[in-house]
Amino acid sequence: MAVKYLASPPTHCTFSLLSLHPSLLPSLLPYLPPSLPSTQSTQRETALMELSKKREVYPDLAPILWHSVGTMAALLQEIIAIYPMLSPPTLTAQASNRVCNALALLQCVASHAETRGLFLQGHD
Q1: How many CB atoms lie within 10 A of CB 32?
Q2: Cβ atoms 54, 36 nearer than 8 A
Q3: Domain limits at 103?
Q4: Is residue 38 part of a domain?
Q5: Alpha carbon 9 to its chain's center
Q6: DSSP code at position 13
Q7: Is 87 among the domain residues?
């Protein structure tokens, strides 16, 4: 499935690519932006978990994550958030799961043919 992109990015944190991917709507819509960049911790945690589970099912998830507003920043924020828990070691199982899910999604983006180069360059 080829990913098509809108000519101009959205001006607020919404997910506009899903309108071009109707097959993804039923199972991914609740978990994609604005859910992932959400400041609500439980909503973001659920989004990370569900997207991480579905990364093997949807081969074009990586470009969707890369090109959706705020998602890469939210993934990086999840990783940065656990650093204070490393010393002294206070990392909880819940925080560990969150960061593992974020890392899995970053790995998905880094290993996809379409987004690998963009990821390594750090821009689109």
Answers
A1: 23
A2: no
A3: 48-124
A4: no
A5: 17
A6: S
A7: yes
